[in-house]
Amino acid sequence: MTETKMHLIGWEQLQASTTSVFRAAGSAPREAQLIAEHLVEANLRGHDSHGVGVVPMYLKGVRSGGMVLNQSLKVALDTGAMLICDAGQGAGQVMAHDAMALGIERAGAEGSAIVSLRNSHHIGRIGHWAEQCAAAGMVSIHFVNVVAGPIVAPFGGTKSRLGTNPFAAAFPRADGPPVVVDFATSTLAAGKVRVANNKGVALPPGALLDNKGQPTTDPAKLFETQPGSLTTFGAHKGSGLMLACELLGAALVGAKTQHNAEAEAVINSMFSVIVSPERLGTAGPFAEELEAVLGWVQSEGNVKLPGMPELETREARLRDGLPVDAATLEQLEAAARGVGLGGFA
Ligand code: NAD
Questions:
Q1: What is the pLDDT of residues 271-314, one digit of tens each?
Q2: Deepest of 72, 75, 128, 288, by most Cβ within 10 A of its Cβ?
Q3: Which CATH number characterizes residue 283's domain?
Q4: Is 282 within 8 Å of 169 (Cβ atoms)?
Q5: Is residue 41 part of a domain?
């Protein structure tokens, strides 16, 4: 495999171009801006799988009716302790933002809140939502299911059954960036296989099975007519967490699960638990204990805290620009022309 050429683009330009594309596609200004900010932030933090490269997929979703532009979040049930919100396949960057804002407000008043976001279009990098909670001083955990056609084989299986069902958690710190745990339950996020395929690079061993259930490192095997399957991380442990995301994110609250849904776009449902240490009166001792635990965990060797690699990448990319591979840029140009613009960047 040969690597393709990379272009370096400034984040402001990428954000402006992405905003223009969604404005041209029909998004109101706030929606276009929230989508563009979220996607460029994913690129800045090194998760190109969830960056502007998804724009063509989103526009395909708009055309198929799988992504509904300018949707408003609806609260379907409010029991006090739990809010169930319907997203109606609206733009995930708006739906998740508004659901988290409701949860933050509730947790601020009651000490904690469970927020369920049902049937949203793709909500992107889940850490973004945990960071929104952390910025408001909240601890949060998030279990997410993905309905986009099965793509991950459960441990012991040879065929895909569920999505890459991500998990995230964030812990705010008094003096410094939050600890952000945020990953897919597949060994690799599907978008990372797309990026590897666009770049023409092999995958690490153990991440992919071909359509016969045999291990392969060729990313193209995921995009064949009879596609292969991603594996779960950590063998049976990741497989169990993937299942918990499906059950909590969707089955518990009547959202779409993978096994019985049509995949006309990428649909996410998210189960979030948001806790306010401030409201519980434990903020002081929690902040102290958090720092003590983090110091202990980092006291030997070269241990990075979750969330730190993303911040290192962010600093470098703010300075140097965002690398976009030639294949992705071509797809973005075509997507921009498809909504009537002269080009993308
Ligand atoms: P990943 O494998 O890159 O893991 C990221 C996590 O590991 C982060 O918390 C990061 O800080 C931490 N980390 C990385 N290197 C580390 C190190 N050396 N030491 C300590 N911690 C380290 O993530 P992924 O599984 O490829 O997921 C990428 C993104 O895709 C995530 O943001 C996830 O939310 C998103 N995703 C979204 C969907 C969806 O449907 N919306 C589906 C799957 C994944």
A1: 999 999 999 999 999 999 999 999 999 999 999 999 999 999 99
A2: 128
A3: 3.30.1370.60
A4: no
A5: yes
